[in-house]
Protein backbone atom coordinates (compact mmCIF):
# COMPACT_ATOMS: atom_id res chain seq x y z
CA UNK A 1 0.00 0.00 0.00
CA UNK A 2 0.99 3.59 -0.59
CA UNK A 3 -0.14 6.21 1.94
CA UNK A 4 -0.07 9.95 1.28
CA UNK A 5 -1.08 12.56 3.91
CA UNK A 6 -2.98 15.48 2.37
CA UNK A 7 -2.37 18.22 4.90
CA UNK A 8 -4.58 21.29 4.66
CA UNK A 9 -2.53 23.12 7.29
CA UNK A 10 -2.33 23.72 11.02
CA UNK A 11 -5.20 25.39 12.88
CA UNK A 12 -6.37 26.34 16.32
CA UNK A 13 -9.92 25.58 17.37
CA UNK A 14 -11.76 26.54 20.54
CA UNK A 15 -15.30 26.23 21.90
CA UNK A 16 -16.63 28.34 19.01
CA UNK A 17 -15.65 25.43 16.70
CA UNK A 18 -14.05 27.83 14.26
CA UNK A 19 -10.80 26.66 12.65
CA UNK A 20 -8.28 29.50 12.59
CA UNK A 21 -5.07 29.05 10.53
CA UNK A 22 -1.92 28.93 12.64
CA UNK A 23 1.63 29.61 11.46
CA UNK A 24 4.14 28.21 13.94
CA UNK A 25 6.79 30.62 12.68
CA UNK A 26 4.74 33.79 12.98
CA UNK A 27 1.80 33.20 15.36
CA UNK A 28 1.75 33.06 19.15
CA UNK A 29 -0.33 30.16 20.44
CA UNK A 30 -0.68 31.82 23.86
CA UNK A 31 -2.54 34.73 22.26
CA UNK A 32 -5.33 32.41 21.11
CA UNK A 33 -8.46 32.03 23.32
CA UNK A 34 -8.08 29.92 26.45
CA UNK A 35 -8.81 26.27 25.79
CA UNK A 36 -7.70 26.39 22.14
CA UNK A 37 -6.38 23.19 20.61
CA UNK A 38 -3.61 23.04 18.02
CA UNK A 39 -4.49 20.57 15.27
CA UNK A 40 -3.55 19.54 11.77
CA UNK A 41 -6.31 18.94 9.23
CA UNK A 42 -5.10 15.95 7.30
CA UNK A 43 -7.10 13.60 5.09
CA UNK A 44 -5.22 10.62 3.69
CA UNK A 45 -5.15 8.84 0.37
CA UNK A 46 -4.36 5.13 0.55
CA UNK A 47 -3.58 3.34 -2.69
CA UNK A 48 -4.22 -0.39 -2.37
CA UNK A 49 -4.06 -3.24 -4.85
CA UNK A 50 -7.77 -2.61 -5.59
CA UNK A 51 -8.64 1.02 -4.88
CA UNK A 52 -7.64 4.61 -4.47
CA UNK A 53 -9.12 5.30 -1.04
CA UNK A 54 -9.70 8.74 0.48
CA UNK A 55 -10.05 8.86 4.27
CA UNK A 56 -12.20 11.85 5.28
CA UNK A 57 -12.36 15.04 3.23
CA UNK A 58 -10.95 17.97 5.22
CA UNK A 59 -12.44 21.41 5.69
CA UNK A 60 -13.55 22.03 2.12
CA UNK A 61 -11.55 25.24 1.80
CA UNK A 62 -10.63 26.55 -1.63
CA UNK A 63 -7.18 27.49 -2.88
CA UNK A 64 -6.85 29.65 -5.99
CA UNK A 65 -10.48 28.89 -6.83
CA UNK A 66 -10.13 25.10 -6.60
CA UNK A 67 -10.99 22.76 -3.77
CA UNK A 68 -7.82 22.49 -1.70
CA UNK A 69 -8.32 18.74 -1.34
CA UNK A 70 -8.42 18.36 -5.13
CA UNK A 71 -5.24 20.39 -5.48
CA UNK A 72 -3.47 18.37 -2.80
CA UNK A 73 -4.39 15.16 -4.62
CA UNK A 74 -3.15 16.50 -7.95
CA UNK A 75 0.09 17.64 -6.31
CA UNK A 76 0.50 14.01 -5.24
CA UNK A 77 -0.03 12.85 -8.82
CA UNK A 78 -3.63 11.68 -8.36
CA UNK A 79 -6.56 13.00 -10.36
CA UNK A 80 -9.70 13.36 -8.18
CA UNK A 81 -11.55 11.22 -10.75
CA UNK A 82 -9.27 8.32 -9.81
CA UNK A 83 -10.59 8.10 -6.23
CA UNK A 84 -12.78 5.00 -6.02
CA UNK A 85 -13.90 5.01 -2.37
CA UNK A 86 -14.31 7.76 0.24
CA UNK A 87 -14.38 6.43 3.79
CA UNK A 88 -15.99 8.81 6.29
CA UNK A 89 -15.15 8.38 9.98
CA UNK A 90 -17.86 10.90 10.93
CA UNK A 91 -19.46 14.04 9.54
CA UNK A 92 -18.11 16.90 11.64
CA UNK A 93 -17.28 19.84 9.41
CA UNK A 94 -13.49 19.48 9.66
CA UNK A 95 -13.78 15.92 8.32
CA UNK A 96 -16.67 16.32 5.86
CA UNK A 97 -16.15 19.82 4.49
CA UNK A 98 -14.81 18.55 1.19
CA UNK A 99 -17.49 16.00 0.36
CA UNK A 100 -19.03 18.21 -2.31
CA UNK A 101 -18.42 21.29 -4.43
CA UNK A 102 -20.67 24.00 -5.77
CA UNK A 103 -21.71 24.05 -9.39
CA UNK A 104 -23.37 26.78 -11.40
CA UNK A 105 -26.65 28.16 -10.01
CA UNK A 106 -25.53 27.17 -6.48
CA UNK A 107 -26.10 23.47 -7.14
CA UNK A 108 -23.78 21.00 -5.44
CA UNK A 109 -22.26 17.72 -6.57
CA UNK A 110 -20.08 15.21 -4.81
CA UNK A 111 -16.39 16.08 -5.10
CA UNK A 112 -15.35 12.65 -6.35
CA UNK A 113 -17.56 11.68 -9.29
CA UNK A 114 -16.33 8.09 -9.66
CA UNK A 115 -16.21 7.20 -5.96
CA UNK A 116 -18.56 5.50 -3.56
CA UNK A 117 -18.90 7.29 -0.22
CA UNK A 118 -19.14 5.05 2.86
CA UNK A 119 -21.08 6.71 5.70
CA UNK A 120 -22.62 5.45 8.93
CA UNK A 121 -26.39 5.74 8.47
CA UNK A 122 -27.07 6.75 12.08
CA UNK A 123 -24.36 9.41 11.91
CA UNK A 124 -26.02 10.94 8.85
CA UNK A 125 -29.45 10.82 10.48
CA UNK A 126 -28.06 12.54 13.56
CA UNK A 127 -26.26 15.20 11.55
CA UNK A 128 -29.44 16.06 9.62
CA UNK A 129 -31.65 16.17 12.70
CA UNK A 130 -29.44 18.02 15.18
CA UNK A 131 -28.64 21.71 15.14
CA UNK A 132 -24.95 21.81 15.97
CA UNK A 133 -21.93 23.89 15.07
CA UNK A 134 -20.08 20.65 14.41
CA UNK A 135 -22.20 19.76 11.36
CA UNK A 136 -23.07 21.75 8.24
CA UNK A 137 -26.50 20.33 7.47
CA UNK A 138 -27.00 21.98 4.07
CA UNK A 139 -23.81 20.38 2.75
CA UNK A 140 -24.65 16.93 4.14
CA UNK A 141 -28.07 16.90 2.46
CA UNK A 142 -26.33 15.70 -0.71
CA UNK A 143 -25.85 12.30 0.96
CA UNK A 144 -29.60 11.65 1.08
CA UNK A 145 -30.90 9.24 -1.58
CA UNK A 146 -27.66 9.48 -3.53
CA UNK A 147 -26.60 6.43 -5.55
CA UNK A 148 -22.93 7.18 -4.85
CA UNK A 149 -23.49 6.86 -1.10
CA UNK A 150 -23.33 3.53 0.74
CA UNK A 151 -24.95 3.76 4.17
CA UNK A 152 -23.31 1.45 6.68
CA UNK A 153 -24.86 -0.17 9.73
CA UNK A 154 -22.83 -0.72 12.92
CA UNK A 155 -19.94 -2.91 11.72
CA UNK A 156 -18.90 -5.05 8.80
CA UNK A 157 -16.48 -5.44 5.90
CA UNK A 158 -16.36 -3.68 2.53
CA UNK A 159 -15.11 -5.74 -0.42
CA UNK A 160 -13.54 -8.34 1.88
CA UNK A 161 -10.64 -6.12 2.97
CA UNK A 162 -11.88 -2.89 4.60
CA UNK A 163 -13.33 -3.53 8.06
CA UNK A 164 -15.36 -0.85 9.83
CA UNK A 165 -16.82 -0.59 13.31
CA UNK A 166 -19.01 1.97 15.01
CA UNK A 167 -17.49 3.15 18.29
CA UNK A 168 -19.68 5.94 19.66
CA UNK A 169 -16.62 7.46 21.33
CA UNK A 170 -15.71 10.86 19.87
CA UNK A 171 -19.18 11.32 18.39
CA UNK A 172 -22.27 9.24 18.98
CA UNK A 173 -21.96 7.25 15.75
CA UNK A 174 -18.28 7.64 14.92
CA UNK A 175 -16.69 4.75 13.03
CA UNK A 176 -13.12 3.52 12.50
CA UNK A 177 -11.52 1.54 9.68
CA UNK A 178 -8.95 -1.23 9.20
CA UNK A 179 -7.57 -1.61 5.67
CA UNK A 180 -5.97 -5.03 5.21
CA UNK A 181 -4.07 -5.45 1.97
CA UNK A 182 -1.07 -7.50 0.88
CA UNK A 183 -0.20 -8.47 4.44
CA UNK A 184 -0.34 -4.92 5.87
CA UNK A 185 -2.92 -3.41 8.21
CA UNK A 186 -3.66 0.32 8.17
CA UNK A 187 -5.79 1.70 11.00
CA UNK A 188 -7.69 4.98 10.69
CA UNK A 189 -9.31 6.06 13.93
CA UNK A 190 -10.53 9.50 12.88
CA UNK A 191 -11.17 11.58 16.01
CA UNK A 192 -11.22 8.55 18.29
CA UNK A 193 -7.45 8.34 17.72
CA UNK A 194 -6.48 11.74 16.28
CA UNK A 195 -2.91 12.20 17.56
CA UNK A 196 0.05 10.05 18.55
CA UNK A 197 0.29 11.52 22.06
CA UNK A 198 -3.27 10.46 22.82
CA UNK A 199 -2.32 6.84 22.17
CA UNK A 200 0.54 6.97 24.66
CA UNK A 201 -1.14 8.76 27.58
CA UNK A 202 -4.35 8.06 29.48
CA UNK A 203 -6.76 10.96 29.50
CA UNK A 204 -10.35 11.81 28.72
CA UNK A 205 -11.33 14.74 26.51
CA UNK A 206 -14.33 16.95 27.25
CA UNK A 207 -15.04 17.30 23.54
CA UNK A 208 -15.68 13.55 23.14
CA UNK A 209 -19.19 12.08 23.32
CA UNK A 210 -17.84 9.34 25.60
CA UNK A 211 -14.37 10.33 26.73
CA UNK A 212 -13.75 7.27 28.90
CA UNK A 213 -14.67 4.91 26.08
CA UNK A 214 -12.37 6.81 23.71
CA UNK A 215 -9.52 6.54 26.20
CA UNK A 216 -9.98 2.78 26.67
CA UNK A 217 -10.29 2.19 22.93
CA UNK A 218 -7.05 4.06 22.28
CA UNK A 219 -5.25 1.86 24.80
CA UNK A 220 -6.75 -1.26 23.26
CA UNK A 221 -5.87 -0.27 19.68
CA UNK A 222 -2.33 0.75 20.63
CA UNK A 223 -1.69 -2.66 22.22
CA UNK A 224 -3.25 -4.51 19.29
CA UNK A 225 -1.28 -2.38 16.87
CA UNK A 226 2.01 -3.27 18.50
CA UNK A 227 1.17 -6.96 18.38
CA UNK A 228 -0.01 -6.98 14.75
CA UNK A 229 2.29 -4.19 13.45
CA UNK A 230 -0.44 -1.81 12.36
CA UNK A 231 0.19 1.44 10.56
CA UNK A 232 -1.69 4.25 12.34
CA UNK A 233 -2.96 7.35 10.52
CA UNK A 234 -3.42 10.44 12.71
CA UNK A 235 -5.73 13.03 11.15
CA UNK A 236 -4.99 15.84 13.63
CA UNK A 237 -1.32 15.26 14.43
CA UNK A 238 0.88 18.23 13.53
CA UNK A 239 4.14 16.24 13.44
CA UNK A 240 3.27 12.52 13.20
CA UNK A 241 0.71 11.77 10.47
CA UNK A 242 1.82 8.15 9.96
CA UNK A 243 3.27 5.73 12.52
CA UNK A 244 4.10 2.15 11.57
CA UNK A 245 4.58 -0.19 14.54
The CATH topology: Metallo-beta-lactamase, Chain A
| Helix/strand order, N-terminal first | EEEEEEEEHEHEEEHHEEEEEHHEE
Structural class: alpha+beta
* Percentage of residues in helical conformation: 10-25%
Helical run tally: 6
Overview of this structure, please?
The chain is globular. The chain has a single domain, classed as Metallo-beta-lactamase, Chain A (4-Layer Sandwich), CATH 3.60.15. A hairpin with a 4-residue loop joins strand 5 and strand 6. By secondary structure, the protein is α+β, with helices and mostly antiparallel strands. The strands form 5 sheets. The chain has a 6-stranded mixed beta sheet with strand order 1-5-6-9-12-13. Strands 14-15-16-17-18-19 form a 6-stranded mixed beta sheet, with no helix packed on it. The protein contains 6 helices and 19 strands.
List the helices and strands and how they pair.
Elements lengths: L1 E4 L4 E4 L5 E3 L15 E4 L3 E4 L4 E4 L6 E2 L2 E2 H8 L9 E3 L5 H4 L3 E3 L5 E3 L5 E5 H9 L7 H4 L8 E4 L2 E4 L3 E5 L8 E7 L2 E5 L7 H5 L10 H18 L2 E3 L8 E3 L1
